[in-house]
Amino acid sequence: MSPEYSTGMMYWLPVISAAVIGFAVAMYVILDGFDLGVGILFPYFPQEAQRDQMMNSVAPFWDGNETWLVLGGTGLLVAFPFAYAVIMPALYAPLIAMLLALVFRGVAFEFRWIAKPHHRKWDIAFAAGSAVAAFCQGLMLGGLIRGIRVTGDHFGGGVLDWLSPFSLMCGVGLVEGYALLGACWLVMKTAGGVEQQARRYARPLFVVFMAFIVLVSVWTPLEFERIARRWFSWPNILYLSPVPLLTVFLAVSCYRGLSGRRPTVAFYSAVGLFVVAFIGLVISTLPYLVPPNITLWQAAAAPESQAFILIGMSVLIPIILGYTVFVYYTFRGKVRPGEGYH
User: How far apart are CA 24 and CA 332, in angstroms?
Assistant: First the structure.
């Protein structure tokens, strides 16, 4: 730990910065997750009118949702430059692929409408961009959980260190999880045939997503001793028991919402499952920002930089939250066949 952060209030500066960046990343996963999920489900709705309705359900929100990704990445660079310098080269390949996929997906949003009736390539770009972006995010998550090799003050591994059966599983699992979020969003936000078909897809997606949660919960402590110690040592196992209990509660709530007439409950329960999974990830990795070598305090910038980013975040986050609430409130209600915002 740097001597600057050894005592007093300085000790908590990196913790607060990490919490703020974690909040931004969680907001991105939740908000962009459902519209990526809509894109992942796009090929399974073959009728053009259905696809129009699906895109219109996320059209007012998608670009604002990605603001959180920019905020989280910028915050990491300023507040934890050492971690940024190690993580980026370790994950360059999936990171670049994700960014390119998001570009193609964003362009497809705008070009699909003006290219009609010759818009098939933009349908493909929208669906493929959504799936590739989600898969690459899972690859990066899996690579980070497995750990990044550090030599001295820089990344010491190879260009494919992130590639493993575990990271591939995380990639597939995140695609499936985003598809569940997208299906729950369509059940809540659309009407007519799209809602009915999304409900049919949502139930099996829910079952598979819960299977992935169980698989990750078993795989990680078996493969990574540090995670097993964190979750199953005493008294940690007692303190952390609310996490699996809350997961079970949200799972039951989501399934009941999908089976009944409460689509809003189903969607927010699915969001809750992602939030609990994110909390579980934080519990498994802290205090390491780059597992298993670099802690928050080792990666932190100077206290002046920490204070600077926190002051900036204290201004930006309320503005972004206010804009987000305003947009979601303004475009509340269901999107019915033939309606749209384009």
Answer: 23
Retrieve residue 75's tokens.
């915050």
Pairing state between β 150-151 and 154-155: antiparallel
291 — pLDDT class (breaks 50, 70, 90):
confident
Chain segment 183-233, per-residue pLDDT in tens: 999 999 888 888 989 999 999 999 999 999 999 988 988 888 888 888 888
Mark out the alpha helices in 233-262 (DSSP H runs): 236-239, 242-259
Residue partners of 118: CB distance under 8 A and separation at least 6: none
How is residue 302 written in tokens?
């100077």
| Bridge partner residues of 294 (DSSP) | 290
> Hey, which residues does 190 pair with through a beta bridge?
335
Type of residue numbered 109 = F
The mean pLDDT of 145-170, rounded to a whole number, is 86
Query: Could you tell me the fold of the domain covering 14-330?
Result: Formate dehydrogenase/DMSO reductase fold (1.20.1630)
Q: Is the dihedral of CA 89, 94, 97, 99 positive or negative?
A: negative
Contact predicate 39/126, CB 8 Å: yes
DSSP per residue over 73-129, as a string? HHHHHHH-HHHHHHHHHHTHHHHHHHHHHHHHHHHHHHHHHHTTTS-HHHHHHHHHH
Q: What does the alpha-carbon distance between residue 259 and residue 200 come to, in Å, rounded to a whole number?
A: 10
Coil, helix or strand at residue 151: strand
CA 35, CA 61: separation in Å to the nearest integer? 8
Instruction: Output the pLDDT for position 338.
Output: 63
Residue 221 amino acid letter: P
- How many of the other CB atoms lie within 10 Å of CB of 303? 15
Calpha distance 214→249 (Å, rounded): 15
Domain boundaries, the chain: 14-330
